[in-house]
Amino acid sequence: MQKEFNIAVLAGDGIGPEVVAEAIKVLKVIGDRYEVNFHFQEALMGACAIDATGNPLPDATLDLCLKSDAILFGAIGDPKYDNDPNAKVRPEQGLLALRKNLGLFANIRPVTTYDSLLHLSPLRPEKIKGADFVVYRELTGGIYFGEKTRSEDGQYASDLCAYSVSEIERIAALAFKAAQTRRKKLTLVDKANVLETSRLWREVVRRMAGDYPDVEVDYMFVDNAAMQMIQWPTQFDVILTSNMFGDIISDEASVIAGSMGLLPSASIGAQTSLFEPIHGSYPQAAGQNRANPLATILSAAMLLESLELHDAATEIRAAVSKSLAENKTTEDLNSDAPMTTAEVGDYVVSYVLDVSHV
Ligand code: IPM
Ligand code: MG
Asked: pTM for the full model?
């Protein structure tokens, strides 16, 4: 029987629409090849939603997401809001509200190195060769969602960082389980020498470690982790961390992969999961057909995994590796003879269509 899946598509702002279009092209040929029917339905979120409706996350978008089997998301953000600290409505609020409303408490960001790209990283190839880790970032708590205040005279502001045991336990359980299927090492990244919330994370993770005796656990302060990730990235397997630390170290980790344009992510939780590249809206390149679509295409592969379409996901990853090995890439990876966004998407599509590689 033909499988049917409803996919909500939130292309968003900046380069979002261009990179999402390529991922959809790839998902369509995957659908044909694996006899799966994807029904794509688009909705607005971010600056484009503010322009159209005044709301960065319109109700119609949330409703569509709630009734879909998965969400493919591009990027949000627009410089006109970044440069206006007094803006009352911001594109980012749409994404944060979506994460909260869908209960997407775990953001999973795999970091892989490709031998063909080692020379492109500003880090020395021998240091990063073989690095392969995954960041489990808590996504619906911490300082992102704690109370925010600003005094009436505007001279004082605060952001509260708060975590409960259950919020820590649910993501830690996912991270421990992931470690069990990988190299069995989990590193908790925190700031337990200063922050009370970090001490709670440590307490909870230390207690849970007893339930996963096959997983080696270590604890690292975030400042040290930021340095170690660059010095010795191969030591990491699963990194577990809070919302803000995860945001920061995952951007840092993209340097190891060679380009921001390569890192996918999955946000999972209570119901529908969301898949998005970790890069932002890159407004400078918007509409120019030069942004790297591979992070979004790899996010589509994670989406397929979540629908148990493992062979299809493997095929996409093979196509991406091939495009990197053959230098069929956009300008971020290929300054001599860059391909356009659409050409890279076409290359991945042609790989999937070409049955001769099977
Ligand atoms: C990310 C982004 C978001 C975040 C922004 C756009 C709100 O940087 O997904 O990493 O900080 O979580
Ligand atoms: Mg970020």
From this structure: 0.95
Q: Please list the alpha-helical segments (H only) found in the chain.
A: 16-34, 47-53, 59-67, 79-82, 91-101, 125-128, 165-181, 196-209, 222-231, 243-257, 294-306, 310-325, 341-353
Give the closest residue (by CA) to ligand 1 atom 10. 247
CATH label of the domain that carries residue 327: 3.40.718.10
307 and 243 housed in the same domain: no
Q: Which single residue is written with the structure tokens 């809070």?
A: 242
Q: What is the per-residue pLDDT across 288-300, written as a single tens digit (0 to 9) for each?
A: 999 999 999 999 9
Q: Which residues line ligand 1 (CB under 6 A)?
A: 77, 92, 95, 247, 278
Say if 309 falls within a structural domain.
Answer: yes
Range 244-265 burial, b when 16+ CB lie within 10 A, else e: bbbbebbeebbbbbbbbbbbbb
- Give the domain range for residue 124: 113-132+140-258
pLDDT tens digits, 193-212 = 999 999 999 999 999 999 99
Coil, helix or strand for 272?
Answer: coil
